[in-house]
C-alpha cells in the first residue's frame, strides 16, 4: 500500500508538471506562431514589391514563397492573412482587384489538398505539383476571364501573361520546397526530411531554375538589341532632318516654312516606322525651360529615353503600352532652333519582344510540366527500394516476438540497397537468437527483484516510521547490542544509527539507573517475554524525556530468541499534560471553594446535583448536603413567580445546547429575597449527547437595587425633560453625528424624521449668521478646557421662516487618551418668549429713561428761547417712536391762532413748518375741541375720518399725513398749544407707549413754559453778571463758619461739573479738595478763619464731578454778623489749571529731553561697540525697558497669516505672559495687514487680556516695524514690552526712541541675515560641489557592488534556502539600499532649485526605510513604525528617505544605552504652532511624519545651530555636520516644514509637515 500511494503521488506530480509544461509550451508556441505569421506576411508583401523584370510589363515575383510556407506551417487562417497582405500589395501595383480572387482561390485549393492528404494518411503532396494542378483546373480559366474582361489586353498578351504567372508560381513552389528542406536541416530534427521530397525538389530546381534564367537573359539581350537598332535608325533620321531644315532655313527663314518642313519630316518618319509607332517631331526653342513638357523620362539607353506621365517605371502591361520613346537631335546651325525632339510609342518594340518570347514561354511551360512529371516518377522510383527496406526493418520486432524467420527482400538494381538488405537479414537472425536467451534471463530476474523489493519495503517502512524502532541481538553474556535503529529513533534520542550500532539501549538511562521500571524490563528480557513499561530516558544532549517501550522477542525456526524488537514512543507531553491536569484540578477545586459565586454541576441522567461549592451555604443559607440529596430543596428556594421560568430555561438549554444566563429570585429560610444570576453551560459526552449542566450562580441583589434606582432616576429624568419641554442633544465630534430627541426638532417646527440625518451641518444651516462667531468662541473655550460648561444663547430658523431663540447648555463627557474631545451632551431650551419680554422690557425701560431724561432737561434751569432743547427733544421723540414728523404748536399771543414753532422730520420727509404759521382756531375744527378738553387726538387713518372732519382731512391729506397723534399743552389759563407726531410714508397704529411718551413730554413742556415766564424777569437781571462770570471762569461763593456752601453761582456747573443746588447746603469747600492735599489745606484755611484773616491767592486743587483734577486760585473775605461774630466767608474761585499744566509740562519736557538725550548717547555708544546681533538686540531691549519702565520686552518677526518667531527676550529667564492671550494680542495686531504702521501702540486697562492681567501685567506696548527687505508678503519685526505699572500715555520722545530701537534691531538682524545667507550660500555651493563629486563616484562603486550582488544571487540561487549565503547577500543588499538613500541625499546638496515633487504614497518608502533601519539599529534600541493607511503626500520618496534616515541615526546616537525610536505618519491639522524651525507654511492640514526618540535631548544653543552646514557635536569619526544640513535642504526645497521639540534627559521629537497629495 505505501508503494502504491507513492506511485500515485508520483503520477499526480508528473501529471501536474506535464500540464504546467503544456500550458507554458502552448503559450510559447502561440507567441512563436504569431511572430512567424507577421514575418511571413511582411515577407509576402516585400516579395511582391521587389520583383525580377522579364520584359515590358512581365516579371517574376517571389511573394508566393512566404504564402506557401504559411499554408504548410500555420494552416488556412494564417495563410489567408498572409494572402491578404500579398494581394493588397499586388493589387496596388497592377491596379486590378482580381488578384484577391486568384490568390484566395490558390490558398483554399492548397489548404484543401493538404487537409485531404492528412485525413487520408498520406504524405504531404509536393507544392510544385499542387501549383501545377491548380493552374490546370482553376487558375487558367480564372486568370483569362479576369484579364480579358477587366483589362484592355489582347488574347495574345493575356496568354503571354498567363504563361508567365504559371511558370512564376511553379518556380515559387520549388523555392518554397527548398526553404522547407533548409529549415529542416538547420533545426536538426530527426526524420524531418523525406528522401523522396528531397530528390523531387532538387530535380525540379536543377531543371527549372536554369531554364528560366536562360530565358530571362535572352529577353534582356533582345530588348537591348531592339532599342539599339531603334536608336541608330533615329540618329540617321535626325541627321537627314538636320540637313533638310538647314536647307529650308536658308531658303526661307520664316517660321511657317520651318513648321511645314517639320510636318514633312514627321510624315516621312511615320512611313519608315510601324503604324503603331505614331511618331511626333517638335522643334526645341532656345529656352528649354519654356517648353511645355508633361512627360518625364524614367530610363535611357544610348540617348534613347523612355518616358511616361509619372517619371516612374511602369509595372503592368497596360501601363507599358502608354510608354513612349524620346530621341533628341541637337541643331546648332539654325537660328531660333536648338534641336529636334522625336517621340514614338513603345508598342512596336513590345510587340517584337512578345512575339519572340511567346514560343519560348510555351516551351518553358511544357518543359516545366515535363520536369514535374519526371521528377515525381524518378524520385518515387529511387525511393521505392529504401521504403521496402524500412518496411522490413519495422516488421522485424514482430517477427522476433513471433519467432518467424526473416522473409527475403525484393531485389534491387542499386548496389548499396542490396548490401543494406543483406545486413538487415543478418541482424534480424542474431536478434532473434539473443531475444530467446534474454527471455529466460528476464523471468529469473523478475523473481529475484520481487524478493528484494519486498525486503527493501520492510526496511524502508521500519526506517521511515516516526516511532523509534530498535532491533537488538540477544547474546549469551546478557548484553543486547543494537543492530538496527529507525529514523524515528534518531530524532527521538539524538543518537545516529552509526553511534547506536553495537551499543546497549541502557545508555539512554545514563546515570539514572534507580528506576523500578528497569527491573521489570530486565526481568522480561531474562524470561524472554514481551514487556511494556515507561522509563526516564536522556537524549544525547542530556535532556530528559519520558519513553514508553514495547519490547517483543523474535523467535527463529528452532524456537530460540535471536533478537528483540523495541518500539519506543516519546510520552513526555502526555505525562506533563497529566501533571498539569492534576495541578489544574487542584487549583480549580481551590478556586471553586474560595470564590463568592456558587459553582455547581447537575447530572442529567441522575437528575440531581452532584457538586455544589461552599458559597451556596452563604447565599442560599441552606446546607449543601440537603440540596445534593433532594433536588426539591433548590427548586422550592426559587421565588414562585420565577420557578417556572428557571425550569423551562434549563430544558431549553438541554434542547438547544446554547450558553444560557438566567436571572431569578430566591427566598432564604428567613424569608429574605435575593436576586441570583445563573450562567449555565451544557456538557456533552463522547457521542455528542447532553450529559451534565455546569453553572456559576452569583448574587446580584445589590446590582438589581442599583438598576432599579437608575431606572427610577431615568424615568424621573425623562418626565422632567418632557415636562420642561427641553430638547436634548448628543454630539459625537469625530463623526459629527448629533442625536436629538423629538422636542429638539419640534422647537424648529420639524419632526425628527424631517431633519435626518442630524449632524453638525443640520445645526449650522439653521443658525443665525450673526450668532455663529459667538457660538464658535464659546464652543472653542469649552473644548480648550477654559470653561466648565458650554453655555450660549443664539437664534435658529424656524421651519416657517422666523427666528427662534435657543439657550444651549452642554459639556464634554468623553475625551480621547490624548485629551481630544470625543463626545458632548446637552440641552436646548426655547427662550423666545423670554427674549421677547426682555426686548419689550428693555424698550420700555429705554422709553422711561428717555422720558425721565427729557422731562429732567425741562425741569432744570433751562431756557426754551433758543429752541435747541426742544428741537433735540422732538428729534429724540420722533426717533424713539419711529414717526416721520414731530412738532410743537404754541398759541400766538394776542391772537386766536397757533403756529408751528419747532419741527423735526425724518430723512426723506418734507418739512412743513413754514406753511404752518398763524393757523386760525377755526381751521382746526373738531380737533381743537378735543384738545381744549385736554384730550389727546389719536388718528390711525386720516382717510377714515368722518364728514365733520372733512375740511381738516383735506388739509391733512394735502400734507400727505396718513396717521396723527396730538397731546395738548394745558395750564390754568387753558390750551397753551399741543405737541404731535405724524406718519407720512405709511399708516400706523399708535402704541400706548407712544402716547405715554408724548404726554410726558407735554407735561414737561408745560412746566418749562410756565417756569420760563416766571423766571424771565429774574433771568434778565442776572444775565449780565452770569455772562461776566462765565467768561472769566470765576465761581463766586459763600460759606458758613463750618465751611458749608450757602451760595454758589452757576459757574460751578461749568467749572466743576456740579450744579449749584448739589453744593449748597450739602458740601463743604474742603470736600472738593483731593485726599492727599485735603488735610493740609483744610487746616490752613480754618487757621485763617479763626484769625478772621482773608484768603489771598490760595492755590488749591479741586476734584471735578468727573473726578478730574482742577487747579484753582481762591480769594475770600470774612463775613461778620451784627454782633461781630464770624458768620462765614464770601469770595471767588478762579481756574488756573492751564497755568499749572503749562508749568508742569515745561518741567516734564525738560526731564524727557534730558532722558531722551541720555538714551541717544547710550544707543550711539552701543552701535560703536561691535556686539553680536543677538547681544546688541538684547542691549537695545534693555534700554527700552529702562527708558519706558517696562518689566519684560521681547522682539521677533512674523508675516501676515504666519506664526510668530521670537528673536530675543529681556530678561531671558523671565516668565512669559499667558501664551494664548499674548498670541491673541499679536494676532489682533496683524488682523488687518494693511493697517500696520511703524507706530507704537499702547494697550492698557481693560484692553489688556484678563489672563495677562491675572499675572500682574497692566499695560503693554506693541510696535510692528517693516523688515528692510523686498519679501512678499512683507516681514514685520514685532516688539512687545510688558509692564505691571499702568501706562496712560506715550510721549513723542518715547515713541521716537522705541521706533529707533525697533528699526535698529530690524536693521542689524537683516544685515546679520544677509551675511549669514552669503556664508550659507558659499558653504552650500562648496558642499554641493563636494557632495556631487563624492556621490557620483560613490554611485559608480555602488553600481559595481549592485552588479556583483546580482551575479552572486544568481550564482547561489540553486543552493538550499537555509544556506547562510542567502542571508549574507540579503544583508549586503539592505546595506546597499541604505548607501543609495545616502547618495540621493548627497545629490540633493549639489542640485539647485526645488526637489521634483509628485503624489507619493508614504507607506512603501517608509516600510523600505524601516527594513534598512532594522539592520542598522542595535538590539538595545526598540524600533516602531506607524503609518496611517492610504496616506499620500507631495514629496520625493528618495529625498524623504534620506532625511528620515539622518534623523533616525541621530536619534540612535543620542541613545547609547538604548531606548525607543519611532516614526509615525498621519494626517493632522497644524494650527501654526509650534513654530517651524525650517520652512514657511500656513496653518492647515498636512501629512505629518514624526521622528521621536527617548535620548538625551538637545540643548537650546545646539537647536539654534544644528541645521548649519559642517556644524556637529559628535566626534570627528562619527559626525561631519552634513546630515541635518541635508534635512534642511530637503525641507526648504520641497516646500515642506520642520518643527523641533526637545527636552533634556527625555528625548526629541521632530515633525515633517508635507503637503497632502
From TrEMBL:
Residues 531-583, 660-712, 790-843, 1096-1148 form the PAC domain. The keyword RNA-binding does not apply. SUPFAM superfamilies: ATPase domain of HSP90 chaperone/DNA topoisomerase II/histidine kinase (SSF55874), GAF domain-like (SSF55781), PYP-like sensor domain (PAS domain) (SSF55785). The chain crosses the membrane at residues 31-52, 64-86, 98-117, 129-150, 162-186, 198-217. InterPro entries: GAF (IPR003018), GAF-like_dom_sf (IPR029016), HATPase_C_sf (IPR036890), HATPase_dom (IPR003594), His_kinase_dom (IPR005467), PAC (IPR001610), PAS (IPR000014), PAS-assoc_C (IPR000700). Keywords: Coiled coil, Kinase, Membrane, Phosphoprotein, Transferase, Transmembrane, Transmembrane helix. It catalyses: ATP + protein L-histidine = ADP + protein N-phospho-L-histidine. Residues 1333-1557 form the Histidine kinase domain. It comes from the Bacteria. Residues 454-528, 713-786, 1039-1092 form the PAS domain. GO terms for molecular function: protein histidine kinase activity. It is an enzyme of class 2 (transferase). PROSITE patterns: HIS_KIN (PS50109), PAC (PS50113), PAS (PS50112). The keyword Membrane applies. Its EC number is 2.7.13.3. Residues 1139-1166 form a coiled coil. Pfam families: GAF, HATPase_c, PAS_3, PAS_4, PAS_9. This is histidine kinase. The lineage of its organism: Bacteria, Pseudomonadati, Pseudomonadota, Gammaproteobacteria, Chromatiales.
Amino acid at each position: 500500500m505505501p508503494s502504491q500511494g507513492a506511485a500515485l503521488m508520483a503520477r499526480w506530480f508528473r501529471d501536474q508538471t506535464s500540464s504546467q509544461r503544456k500550458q507554458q509550451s502552448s503559450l510559447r508556441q502561440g507567441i512563436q506562431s504569431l511572430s512567424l505569421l507577421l514575418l511571413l506576411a511582411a515577407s509576402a508583401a516585400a516579395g511582391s514589391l521587389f520583383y525580377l523584370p522579364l520584359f515590358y510589363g512581365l516579371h517574376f515575383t517571389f511573394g508566393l514563397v512566404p504564402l506557401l510556407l504559411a499554408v504548410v506551417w500555420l494552416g488556412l487562417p494564417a495563410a489567408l492573412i498572409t494572402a491578404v497582405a500579398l494581394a493588397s500589395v499586388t493589387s496596388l501595383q497592377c491596379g486590378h482587384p482580381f488578384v484577391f480572387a486568384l490568390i484566395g482561390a490558390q490558398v483554399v485549393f492548397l489548404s484543401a489538398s493538404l487537409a485531404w492528404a492528412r485525413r487520408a494518411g498520406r504524405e504531404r503532396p509536393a507544392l510544385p505539383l499542387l501549383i501545377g494542378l491548380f493552374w490546370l483546373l482553376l487558375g487558367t480559366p480564372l486568370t483569362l476571364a479576369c484579364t480579358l474582361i477587366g483589362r484592355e489586353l489582347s488574347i495574345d498578351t493575356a496568354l503571354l501573361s498567363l504563361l508567365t504567372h504559371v511558370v512564376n508560381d511553379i518556380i515559387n513552389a520549388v523555392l518554397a520546397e527548398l526553404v522547407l528542406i533548409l529549415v529542416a536541416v538547420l533545426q536538426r530534427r530527426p526524420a524531418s526530411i523525406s528522401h523522396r521530397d528531397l530528390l523531387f525538389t532538387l530535380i525540379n530546381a536543377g531543371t527549372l531554375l536554369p531554364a528560366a534564367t536562360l530565358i530571362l537573359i535572352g529577353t534582356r539581350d533582345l530588348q537591348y538589341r531592339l532599342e539599339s537598332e531603334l536608336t541608330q535608325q533615329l540618329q540617321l533620321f535626325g541627321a537627314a532632318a538636320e540637313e533638310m531644315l538647314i536647307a529650308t532655313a536658308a531658303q526661307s527663314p520664316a517660321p511657317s516654312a520651318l513648321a511645314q518642313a517639320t510636318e514633312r519630316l514627321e510624315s516621312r518618319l511615320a512611313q519608315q516606322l510601324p503604324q503603331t509607332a505614331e511618331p511626333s517631331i517638335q522643334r526645341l526653342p532656345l529656352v528649354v525651360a519654356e517648353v511645355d513638357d508633361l512627360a518625364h523620362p524614367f530610363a535611357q539607353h544610348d540617348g534613347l529615353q523612355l518616358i511616361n506621365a509619372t517619371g516612374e517605371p511602369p509595372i503592368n502591361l497596360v501601363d507599358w503600352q502608354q510608354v513612349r520613346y524620346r530621341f533628341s537631335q541637337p541643331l546648332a546651325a539654325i537660328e531660333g532652333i536648338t534641336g529636334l525632339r522625336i517621340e514614338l510609342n513603345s508598342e512596336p518594340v513590345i510587340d517584337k519582344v512578345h512575339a519572340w518570347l511567346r514560343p519560348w514561354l510555351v516551351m518553358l511551360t511544357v518543359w516545366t510540366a515535363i520536369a514535374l512529371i519526371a521528377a515525381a516518377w524518378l524520385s518515387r522510383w529511387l525511393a521505392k527500394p529504401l521504403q521496402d527496406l524500412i518496411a522490413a526493418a519495422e516488421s522485424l520486432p514482430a517477427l522476433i516476438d513471433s519467432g518467424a524467420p526473416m522473409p527475403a527482400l525484393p531485389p534491387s538494381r542499386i548496389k548499396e540497397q542490396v548490401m543494406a538488405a543483406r545486413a538487415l537479414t543478418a541482424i534480424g537472425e542474431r536478434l532473434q537468437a539473443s531475444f530467446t536467451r534474454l527471455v529466460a534471463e528476464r523471468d529469473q530476474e523478475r523473481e529475484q527483484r520481487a524478493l528484494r523489493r519486498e525486503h527493501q519495503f520492510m526496511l524502508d517502512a521500519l526506517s521511515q516510521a516516526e516511532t523509534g524502532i530498535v532491533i537488538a541481538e540477544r547474546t549469551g553474556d546478557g548484553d543486547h547490542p543494537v543492530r538496527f535503529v529507525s529514523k524515528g529513533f534518531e530524532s527521538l534520542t539524538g543518537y545516529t544509527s552509526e553511534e547506536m550500532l553495537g551499543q546497549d539501549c541502557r545508555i539512554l538511562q545514563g546515570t539514572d539507573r534507580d528506576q523500578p521500571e528497569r527491573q521489570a524490563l530486565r526481568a522480561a528480557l531474562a524470561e524472554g517475554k514481551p514487556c511494556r513499561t515507561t522509563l526516564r530516558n536522556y537524549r544525547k544532549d542530556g535532556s530528559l524525556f519520558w519513553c514508553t517501550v514495547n519490547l517483543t522477542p523474535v523467535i527463529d525456526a528452532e524456537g530460540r530468541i535471536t533478537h528483540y524488537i523495541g518500539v519506543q514512543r516519546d510520552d513526555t507531553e502526555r505525562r506533563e499534560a497529566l501533571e498539569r491536569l492534576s495541578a489544574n484540578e487542584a487549583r480549580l477545586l481551590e478556586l471553586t471553594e474560595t470564590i463568592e459565586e456558587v459553582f455547581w454541576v447537575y447530572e442529567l441522567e441522575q437528575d440531581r446535583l452532584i457538586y455544589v461549592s461552599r458559597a451556596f451555604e452563604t447565599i442560599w443559607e441552606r446546607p449543601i448536603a440537603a440540596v445534593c440529596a433532594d433536588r426539591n430543596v433548590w427548586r422550592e428556594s426559587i421565588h414562585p413567580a420565577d420557578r417556572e421560568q428557571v425550569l423551562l430555561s434549563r430544558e431549553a438549554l438541554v434542547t438547544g445546547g446554547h450558553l444560557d444566563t438566567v436571572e431569578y429570585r430566591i427566598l432564604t429560610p428567613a424569608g429574605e429575597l435575593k436576586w441570583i444570576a445563573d450562567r449555565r453551560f451544557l456538557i456533552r459526552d463522547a457521542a455528542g449527547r447532553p450529559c451534565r449542566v455546569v453553572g456559576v450562580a452569583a448574587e446580584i441583589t445589590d446590582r438589581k437595587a442599583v438598576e432599579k434606582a437608575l431606572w427610577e432616576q431615568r424615568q424621573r429624568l425623562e418626565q422632567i425633560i418632557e415636562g420642561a419641554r427641553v430638547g436634548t442633544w448628543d454630539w459625537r465630534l469625530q463623526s459629527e453625528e448629533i442625536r436629538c430627541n423629538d422636542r429638539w426638532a419640534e422647537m424648529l417646527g420639524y419632526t425628527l424624521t424631517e431633519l435626518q440625518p442630524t449632524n453638525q451641518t443640520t445645526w449650522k444651516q439653521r443658525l443665525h449668521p450673526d450668532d455663529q462667531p459667538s457660538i464658535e468662541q464659546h464652543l472653542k473655550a469649552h473644548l480648550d478646557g477654559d470653561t466648565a460648561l458650554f453655555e450660549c444663547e443664539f437664534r435658529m430658523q424656524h421651519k416657517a421662516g422666523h427666528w427662534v431663540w435657543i439657550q444651549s447648555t452642554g459639556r464634554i463627557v468623553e475625551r480621547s487618551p490624548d485629551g481630544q474631545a470625543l463626545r458632548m451632551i446637552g440641552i436646548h431650551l426655547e427662550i423666545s418668549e423670554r427674549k421677547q419680554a426682555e426686548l419689550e422690557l428693555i424698550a420700555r425701560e429705554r422709553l422711561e429713561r428717555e422720558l425721565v431724561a427729557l422731562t429732567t432737561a425741562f425741569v432744570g434751569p433751562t431756557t426754551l428761547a433758543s429752541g435747541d432743547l426742544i428741537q433735540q427733544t422732538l428729534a429724540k421723540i420722533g426717533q424713539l417712536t419711529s414717526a416721520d414728523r414731530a412738532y410743537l404748536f404754541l398759541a400766538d399771543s394776542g391772537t386766536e391762532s397757533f403756529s408751528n414753532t419747532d419741527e423735526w422730520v425724518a430723512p426723506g420727509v418734507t418739512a412743513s413748518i413754514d406753511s404752518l404759521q398763524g393757523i386760525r382756531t377755526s381751521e382746526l375744527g373738531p380737533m381743537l375741541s378735543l384738545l381744549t378738553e385736554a384730550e389727546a387726538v389719536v388718528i390711525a387713518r386720516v382717510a377714515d375720518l368722518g364728514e365733520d372732519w372733512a375740511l381738516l382731512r383735506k388739509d391733512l391729506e394735502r400734507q400727505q399725513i396718513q396717521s396723527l397723534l396730538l397731546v395738548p399743552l394745558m395750564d390754568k389759563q387753558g390750551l397753551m398749544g399741543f405737541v404731535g407726531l405724524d406718519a407720512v410714508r405709511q399708516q400706523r397704529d399708535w402704541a400706548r407707549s407712544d402716547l405715554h411718551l408724548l404726554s410726558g413730554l407735554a407735561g414737561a413742556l408745560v412746566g418749562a413754559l410756565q417756569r420760563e415766564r416766571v423766571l424771565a424777569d429774574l433771568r434778565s437781571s442776572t444775565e449780565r453778571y452770569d455772562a461776566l462770570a462765565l467768561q472769566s471762569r470765576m465761581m463766586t461763593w459763600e460759606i458758613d463758619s463750618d465751611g458749608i456752601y450757602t451760595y454758589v453761582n452757576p459757574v460751578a456747573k461749568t467749572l466743576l461739573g456740579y450744579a449749584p443746588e448739589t453744593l449748597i447746603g450739602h458740601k463743604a469747600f474742603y470736600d472738593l479738595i483731593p485726599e492727599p492735599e485735603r488735610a493740609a489745606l483744610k487746616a490752613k484755611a480754618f487757621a485763617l478763619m479763626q484769625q478772621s484773616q482773608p484768603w489771598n491767592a490760595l492755590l488749591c486743587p479741586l476734584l471735578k464731578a468727573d473726578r478730574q483734577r482742577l487747579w484753582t486760585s481762591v480769594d475770600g473775605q470774612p463775613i461778620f454778623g451784627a454782633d461781630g461774630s464770624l458768620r462765614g466767608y464770601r469770595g471767588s474761585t478762579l481756574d488756573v489749571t492751564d497755568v499749572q499744566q503749562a508749568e508742569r509740562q515745561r518741567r516734564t519736557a525738560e526731564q524727557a529731553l534730558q532722558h531722551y538725550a541720555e538714551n541717544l548717547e547710550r544707543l550711539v555708544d552701543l552701535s560703536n561697540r561691535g556686539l553680536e546681533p543677538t547681544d546688541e538686540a538684547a542691549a537695545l531691549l534693555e534700554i527700552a525697558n529702562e527708558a519706558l519702565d517696562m518689566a519684560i520686552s521681547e522682539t521677533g518677526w512674523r508675516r501676515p497669516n504666519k506664526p510668530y518667531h521670537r528673536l530675543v527676550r529681556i530678561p531671558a529667564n523671565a516668565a512669559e505672559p499667558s501664551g494664548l492671550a499674548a498670541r491673541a494680542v499679536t494676532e489682533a495686531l496683524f488682523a488687518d495687514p494693511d493697517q500696520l504702521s511703524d507706530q507704537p501702540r499702547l494697550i492698557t486697562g481693560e484692553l489688556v487680556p484678563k489672563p495677562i492681567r491675572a499675572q500682574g501685567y497692566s499695560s503693554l506696548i506693541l510696535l510692528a516695524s517693516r523688515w528692510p527687505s523686498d519679501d512678499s508678503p512683507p516681514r514685520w519685526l514685532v516688539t512687545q514690552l510688558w509692564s505691571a505699572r499702568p501706562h496712560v500715555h506715550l510721549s513723542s520722545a518715547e515713541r521716537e526712541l522705541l521706533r529707533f530701537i525697533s528699526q535698529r534691531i530690524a536693521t542689524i538682524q537683516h544685515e546679520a541675515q544677509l551675511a549669514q545667507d552669503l556664508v550659507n550660500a558659499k558653504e552650500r555651493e562648496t558642499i554641493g560641489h563636494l557632495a556631487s563629486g563624492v556621490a557620483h563616484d560613490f554611485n559608480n562603486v555602488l553600481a559595481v557592488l549592485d552588479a556583483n550582488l546580482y551575479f552572486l544571487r544568481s550564482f547561489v540561487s540553486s543552493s538550499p534556502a537555509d544556506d547562510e549565503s542567502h542571508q549574507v547577500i540579503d544583508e549586503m543588499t539592505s546595506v546597499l539600499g541604505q548607501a543609495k538613500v545616502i547618495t540621493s541625499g548627497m545629490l540633493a546638496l549639489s542640485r539647485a532649485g526645488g526637489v521634483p515633487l509628485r503624489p507619493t504614497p508614504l507607506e512603501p518608502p517608509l516600510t523600505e526605510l524601516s527594513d534598512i533601519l532594522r539592520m542598522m539599529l542595535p538590539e538595545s534600541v526598540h524600533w516602531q513604525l506607524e503609518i496611517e493607511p492610504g496616506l499620500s503626500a507631495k514629496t520625493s520618496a528618495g529625498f524623504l528617505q534620506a532625511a528620515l534616515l539622518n534623523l533616525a541615526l541621530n536619534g540612535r546616537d543620542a541613545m547609547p544605552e538604548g531606548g525607543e525610536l519611532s516614526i509615525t505618519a498621519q494626517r493632522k491639522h497644524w494650527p501654526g504652532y509650534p513654530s517651524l524651525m525650517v520652512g514657511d507654511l500656513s496653518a492647515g492640514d498636512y501629512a505629518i511624519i514624526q521622528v521621536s526618540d527617548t535620548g538625551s535631548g538637545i540643548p537650546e544653543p545646539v537647536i539654534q545651530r544644528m541645521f548649519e552646514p559642517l556644524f556637529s557635536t559628535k566626534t570627528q569619526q562619527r559626525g561631519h555636520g552634513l546630515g541635518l544640513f541635508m534635512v534642511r535642504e530637503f525641507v526648504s526645497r520641497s516646500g515642506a516644514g520642520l518643527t523641533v521639540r526637545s527636552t533634556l534627559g527625555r528625548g526629541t521629537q521632530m515633525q515633517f509637515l508635507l503637503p497632502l497629495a
